From TrEMBL:
Keyword field: Oxidoreductase
Enzyme Commission code(s) on record: 1.-.-.-
PANTHER family assigned: FLAVIN REDUCTASE, FMN REDUCTASE (NADH) RUTF
Residues annotated as domain Flavin reductase like: 24-171
Record GO terms (molecular function): oxidoreductase activity
Organism: Streptomyces atrovirens
Coiled-coil stretches noted in the UniProt entry, renumbered to this chain: none
Keyword Oxidoreductase included in the entry's annotation: yes
Record-given protein name: Flavin reductase family protein
Amino acid sequence: MSTLTAAPPWTASAGDATRLRRAFGAFATGVTVVTVGGASPRGMTANSFTSVSLDPALVLLCVGRDAGMYRSLAEADTFAVSVLAADQEDVARYFASRSRPAGARQFDAVGWLPGHRSAAPLIAGAAAHFECASWRTYDGGDHAVFLGRVLALDQAPEREPLVFHGGRFRQLSDRGPEV
């Protein structure tokens, strides 16, 4: 049985950046570290990541055009995404910090292993890893939308994912039945 309710009281336009960010924060997301390899490897915490297609296997991530990772991804043939586990909030905060060292030195503070297909660092202990070939890039306003074709993946089903909701890192409290 459905119940009709009055429309919500819209009090802010989509141009109100603070309210917009808060409203976007109502949607819980997973937390990832996106990486590229090569001569100057780089990592960045990102929660704008999702699956797009099963055939071909595609993933999507959004990166701000003002982020150092934007240029790295735009120039890379491959990249990797590590879906962080619930106990890796410190890793998420580290790769979100602009004060970490540049290049390969930024990975000295975390456990990682080299990707076999992407040569990008994979964060050790993550709930899942995706190694991707750069597929397409689209304009997304102040962000770029990167699509990657999945070349290889790994999952640790026993590892709970780290979640971001309402401006805070959180953990899932109920696994519920598998669908």
